[in-house]
Design brief:
1 helix, six-stranded antiparallel beta barrel, about 15% helix, three-stranded antiparallel β-sheet, about 45% strand
Length: about 130
């Protein structure tokens, strides 16, 4: 295990888990990214996610549970173009990298759209994701 993997697994992850709030990443499978073939035994098309190697229903949203520290943007950063009033910044762990414009994140009683996602990746290892949601 590299130093950065250890930082992710033993420091950043547990800290965000303890201080943050539970979140749920909602992702609808992109049929172009799946390996789909007709299974004659089952009599239906079976799709496999190449990342997880698990069967996926392309019509069903995938659910990933994680944790995040949630912040509001400082007033001076709200320009109503890149950052709008009501946007939130998350420092998220335990989820795959959020995809802008397709993924959604639920925390509290609201569901937000992902606007931007940047991995915090010293040494090339994603320790967490800085995510802008709207």
């Amino acid at each position: 295990m590299s130093f950065y993997e250890s930082l992710r697994d033993n420091t950043a992850g547990p800290l965000v888990h303890r201080l943050g709030t539970p979140i749920v990443l909602l992702r609808k499978a992109d049929p172009e990214e799946l390996d789909c073939e007709f299974d004659p035994v089952l009599g239906r098309e079976v799709c496999i996610d190449p990342e997880t190697e698990e069967e996926v229903d392309p019509e069903e949203e995938q659910v990933y549970e994680g944790y995040a520290i949630v912040e509001s943007y400082e007033q001076k950063l709200i320009d109503e173009a890149l950052v709008k009033a009501g946007d939130r910044k998350l420092y998220a762990v335990g989820i795959p990298e959020p995809k802008p414009e397709s993924d959604r994140i639920r925390f509290g009683t609201r569901v937000y759209s992902v606007v931007k996602s940047l991995p915090v990746a010293p040494g090339g290892v994603a320790v967490m994701y800085e995510v802008q949601v709207r």
